[in-house]
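Example 476.
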Amino acid sequence: MAPAASKADVAEYLGQAGSIPVRLRQLPPHIRCGAMTDDPHGTDPRRQVPRTDTLLADPRLAAAGDRLGRDLVKAAIGRVQQRVRDGEVPPASAVDAVVDELPATAASLRPVLNATGVLVHTNLGRAPLSPAAVAAVVAASGTTDVELDLGTGRRGPRGEAAIAALLEAVPAAEAALVVNNCAAALALVATALGQGRELVLARGELVEIGDGFRIPELLQTTGARLREVGTTNRVTLADYRDALGPDTGAVLKVHPSNFVVRGFTRVVEVAELAGALDGIPLVADVGSGLLRPSPLLPDEPDLQTTLAAGADLVLASGDKLLGGPQAGLVLGRAELVQRLRRHPLYRALRVDKTTLAALEATLRGPVPPVRELLAADVDGLRARARALAGRLGDAGVEAVAVDADSRVGGGGAPEHPLPGAAVALAASFAEPLRRGRHPVVGYVEDGRTLLNLRSVPPAADDALVTAVLEVARRWT
Ligand SMILES: *Cc1c(COP(=O)(O)O)cnc(C)c1O
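Predicted structure in complex with pyridoxal-5'-phosphate:
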């Protein structure tokens, strides 16, 4: 910004001027900014920046201070004062402007509408919780009976109800344990069963999950030795048998969730392997968290079937297809689960009360959004897309309904595109929609912005229209 001219500068300039009003208008803007004579009644907003304590005393901002903390409100006030100084906000509207600036919560994570068509999007926080799970989180977030038996007044088992819900959903499991995420479950298993020993794993299952997270590297950091068997494309039962010995801690199967190998391939299924291990634990990481088989995703392994086929332990994520909070689920034989629970590392990986609450409510409550959206039929999605395009068209925004495939995401079902529908807008919408007050993340394809409805809960359709119209309004 140009420095404001001093009064002396202006007086000197005016001294040379014949007709003051005319000459003033010809002054360069930075000189006009400092010119008192241009603002004889003191209406220049830059001279009337409301004071911080005056603003803080406004009832709306005082209430916001109670809700968000004074520091966040003061920061918003500071930004608005600058905008008043810059002449962007009239001083009389400062309070309104601060209210507009205030974040919705004291955390900066913002709700985002996921219109990517990727159901479980890791960058967007994976599974959205069901309203029942959100309510359970809120209820549990104060002091709660997570480890106290209110009947006896004694210490009780932590997370018992969530575990019971898991065991009911997966009857093939004798016991269950919940940790922070599936990576934590793998780390715990590798430490408790494999430290200083060997973990047998097929070369075709040395998986990188995403963002550089490589399962073999994680396993090795626990002090387990990896004993790789087979080749990239083929492994046989004999390969596994040859690798077993007194040093074997466990045999691991990892679901290659985000890729497929086709052609001359062979894998050894859990049922075949389980019969050949002579009591060595067989641990299967199925990743996606499907509890039971899903006809919608025929290639995706599930916990119940994998245990019934003979796995001793199964591991999965809570926030993928299960549709719950971030968590690592470990289910299987009671003796092994107990060993994991007693291991000192478990204490470092256990989940908090809000996760336990959300998990239980996801398992016992209504179908969570991920599974509802997974089951949404194409005709329904097309009808929604047509209705939304119609509403936008009526409001003067060019929009059409188009067919668009979507994906499970989160490393699940890579070969299984889900048919669906999207609203197509001009490509120029993508960025302002993402940066808007109510961010919407779509994607650009063939020169258009697509808002894919497979990942948008129907209850959010109105919010989607509002967000698009807000962007369009700013352009007109
Ligand atoms: C996603 C995935 C993981 C990692 O799960 P997080 O819950 O993100 O730690 C591990 N294994 C498999 C097979 C997966 O698909």
